[in-house]
Design goal:
This protein is of the alpha/beta class. The strands form three sheets. Strands 10-8-7-11-9-12 form a six-stranded mixed beta sheet. Strands 1-13-14-5-6 form a five-stranded mixed beta sheet, with no helix packed on it.
Length: 349
């Protein structure tokens, strides 16, 4: 894909220090939410591991040092904890939390198998024995790892044929549900015609009135400062449109265009190019239309990893190999899980 950054290698070596050599034993091949996997370490051993620099036990011991017995009792005995099904399990959890081995890896992983494509949705956190009030972490593994049956799996690279094929499949499933009457008739005032060839070196801003346009996509991104290219009164498209060479566009725009061409789209709506930025009337009118513009697009690309439009979003995923744990799977094989700071995100993006 179009990117100004050279791909960097991502280490997938398992984090194994002398404190993490014993794999955590998973009792199920598939998640049975909630699934608790206990650490075999007691509090003293965990403290030593944290002092020796183990990033996993640093998190556990830090959370343990701030835990509250009252909150533990209140959340598990005086109310219904969402992570413990039934009063006996809540009592069992409290007793375990008060023991010398309170640390657990808690999987709140849901397997959605009712749709055309089964999906795993992950919300996982290290648990020092104080329930869901502790810091949470996204946990995943890499494609091909044995732990993929337990947690969502990702490619280390974003720019892969398998990613494009997966998105194509999701789009096809959505198209099968049909369009609303508004989707069939609504058109933004302007669209960016990106053409149909991957090697085309320009795009064109067009007025949709009087032009036959098919379904379109939208780009959601962070401006991150002034835009290198914007629509203006002086650039109102002529009957032939406003032609923009690709090299003038910021990286996020170029990568969006490249991605959408591969997905078969010809049109995209980008606010800085489709709204006349120095025309207050046009700007006010188009901003009011934005809920309809996004609602009626067939696809919205969210460049959520880029803090500015110049950064792009197709770089390899960050390396979190220092936060890996070994898992002993029920089939006798070993897998690895990778943890990162919690954020609400789609594990398939």
């Amino acid at each position: 894909m179009v990117t100004a950054m050279a791909p960097t290698s991502i280490s997938t070596e398992t984090h194994i220090c002398k404190h993490c050599q014993v794999p955590l034993k998973a009792e199920y091949a598939h998640p049975q939410p909630p699934l608790r996997i206990p650490f075999p370490h007691n509090i003293k051993e965990a403290t030593v591991a944290a002092q020796d620099g183990c990033p996993i036990f640093k998190e556990l011991v830090s959370a343990y040092s701030h835990r509250s017995l009252w909150k533990l009792i209140r959340s598990h005995l005086l109310s219904k904890c969402k992570c413990c099904k039934g009063p006996l399990k809540r009592l069992h959890y409290v007793l375990g939390s008060l023991s010398s081995q309170p640390f657990q890896l808690l999987f709140l992983v849901h397997l959605y198998d009712s749709g055309p494509e089964p999906m795993l949705d992950s919300l996982v956190h290290l648990d020092c024995g104080n329930g869901p009030i502790n810091p949470r972490f996204n946990v995943y593994t890499y494609n091909g790892n044995n732990a993929a049956s337990l947690v969502p799996s990702l490619d280390t690279e974003v720019d892969t044929p398998s990613t494009i094929e997966a998105v194509r499949g999701w789009l096809q499933n959505c198209r099968c549900t049909g369009k609303s009457s508004e989707q069939k008739t609504f058109k933004p005032t302007r669209l960016l015609d990106i053409g149909g060839k991957e090697d085309q070196d320009h795009v064109t801003v067009i007025e949709t009135l009087g032009n036959a346009t098919s379904s379109y996509a939208c780009l959601s991104y962070c401006w991150g400062g002034s835009q290198p290219v914007t629509n203006s009164i002086l650039r109102k498209p002529s009957s032939d449109g406003w032609v923009i060479p690709l090299y003038e566009l910021p990286e996020t725009f170029k990568e969006s265009i490249y991605t959408l061409r591969r997905l078969g789209f010809q049109y995209i709506w980008i606010d800085s190019l489709c709204i006349i930025q120095d025309d207050l009337d046009d700007k006010g009118r188009e901003i009011c239309q934005m809920p309809h513009i996004y609602k009626n697009s067939q696809l919205t690309l969210c460049a959520s990893t880029a803090r500015s439009c110049d950064l792009g979003f197709l770089q390899p995923r960050p390396d979190h190999s220092e936060n890996q744990l070994q898992l002993s799977m029920p089939n006798g094989k070993f897998g690895t899980s990778v943890s990162k700071d919690y954020s609400s995100y789609s594990s398939y993006s």
